Amino acid sequence: MGRRDNMAFALLRLIPPQGQVPRSCGLLSSSARHPAADGNISPGDDNAPAGRPLIVVFHGAMSSAGNSEPLLQALSDAGFPVVAVSYGHRGTDGLARCVEDATAHVAALLPTHRPMVLIGHSLGAWVATQVAFDPRIMPQVRGIIGLAGVFREPARPLSLAKRLLVRVFAGKAAAEFVSGTLAHTGIPPEAIVSAGIPVWSLRSTADTIVPLSCSALGKVHTIAGVSHAAMARVTAPVVQWCQAIAVTQ
């Protein structure tokens, strides 16, 4: 990372991460790696409940795995094996580096040979689509769920001055998003739908960070009154979608 990108990560060090990954869930990150307390999500282990896909959750930019604590717990309580992935220095690295990091973590889960559902909040939704395109991973992906997901950039990129501010204070990935780089990075998320992988998008009319036009992919469900940050903690529709996938897989 460059100095400006490091500044964003350095600022994050001053802000305690919100929430924690429940002990019933696994965590994969560059600095820490632990299985679930009951051992059912350790890479290479296959003791999770039969007939349930592995749920892999990606945080957004300037975020951390624990931000989705209520969702992680709800999925675990519903009987799903769950693992949260922390990538790209809390999503402050560039888009390509975020995808590389996240893909490496998910690839480590492949010895389980377990079907997966990928869930991403904000930038994590785009990262999930890119991870799903990895030829080692795609055969295991049964669905993708975006929560206020970033699937395409705004129609009008921000000014240069504003982009520089975003890069300094929010990191390179966010800066690339607001500068219109997303369309030229990786594989278009729409190709996931064309590949036959079901995609669900949950978005909110109260989201002031990601425009509604950027967060629509596949089957779209719009709710009201939930902020962008709080979308990472929405539980009921996400659990229902995962249950529907489990029935049809």
UniProtKB/TrEMBL annotation:
<feature type="domain" description="Serine aminopeptidase S33">
    <location>
        <begin position="52"/>
        <end position="169"/>
    </location>
</feature>
<dbReference type="InterPro" id="IPR029058">
    <property type="entry name" value="AB_hydrolase_fold"/>
</dbReference>
<feature type="region of interest" description="Disordered">
    <location>
        <begin position="25"/>
        <end position="47"/>
    </location>
</feature>
<dbReference type="Pfam" id="PF12146">
    <property type="entry name" value="Hydrolase_4"/>
</dbReference>
<dbReference type="InterPro" id="IPR022742">
    <property type="entry name" value="Hydrolase_4"/>
</dbReference>
<protein>
    <submittedName>
        <fullName>Alpha/beta hydrolase family protein</fullName>
    </submittedName>
</protein>
<dbReference type="GO" id="GO:0016787">
    <property type="term" value="F:hydrolase activity"/>
</dbReference>
<keyword id="KW-0378">Hydrolase</keyword>
